[in-house]
Amino acid sequence: MRHHAKWALFSVIIFGLVLVPSASGIAATGGQMPQAQQAVQRASSLLQQDQVEAALEEVDRAIEQDPSFAMAHYIRGMALGKLGQDKEAQAAFLEAALYNPGWTEAHFWVAMSSFRLGDYDMCWEQSILAHQAGMDLTAEIAELRTVSEPPDDLEARLNAPRVYVQEADISALESNRGAEQALAFSQPYLHELARQARRGIQASPHFGLVPRPDMAAYVLVIEVEDLGGVAFEEMQDWRREEEENALPLEESANQPIEMDAYVKLLAGEEQAYRRQMRVRDIRTASQISAELARQIGYLESWIDEQR
Questions:
Q1: CA distances from 249 to 15, 38, 65, 162 (A)
Q2: How close are the terminal C-alpha atoms of the chain, in Å?
Q3: Which domain holds residue 255?
Q4: Percent above pLDDT 90 for the chain
Q5: In terms of Cα–Cα distance, which of 24, 26, 32, 92 is closest to 56?
């Protein structure tokens, strides 16, 4: 019980301090709507002033504007935790970790909320992910063992090679004449490609996902060689249709955007691994997910051969 109390006391103290990012830290996340960023900045300030209900109103407004804004879900979790709503806080932190896989603090707070709820399976999983992502939870994991049996693969996962997944490398396309506008249109899909790659690496028991390249044994790069199947005029029509009708990306047109690429692992300056990858339509999340699962299976076989 002494160890159990230490975890619980620590979470109460930290929620009481309300550790939230600064305005500059929120802005540095990038890629979100300006209105959503501003709402999260206001929520952060309100939370620091102990105006929790007002902070929740602001952060809910941000999530309504941009449901994938990980920082908004994270601050929402902090606010709910301060109110003692652990189940809701756990769900908010999980959303933050879903939209920003490998975010150390988000995984840690899922683990902490889960411990307070007695959800030890989730606590184990998220403690492992936070530890892999760079937070030293050796002592906390040792204490968690006193109240719950660890996963069978605990040691293997704690010691798995760390991988950083960078955004898609489009340098081979940027030199192509007329590619700039097409690349600008495709950027949201390429960003989602990198996010799904992070999720795939994180889900693999063979690897540990980290948030920075200097923490990694390997850097995973998806080097895009070609985006084909559409003309830029069609892309403009699709974007106009999306904006006018608020259609999901995959429903706004039938013409696919094919992608030819290479999956590479870099160990420092050396290329350790390279394999061709093709996605028939990068606008379709299920096709990206299926191809990445196949590619990560190849990576797992390769890393097993290196041992």
A1: 38, 25, 16, 33
A2: 40
A3: 162-306
A4: 66
A5: 92
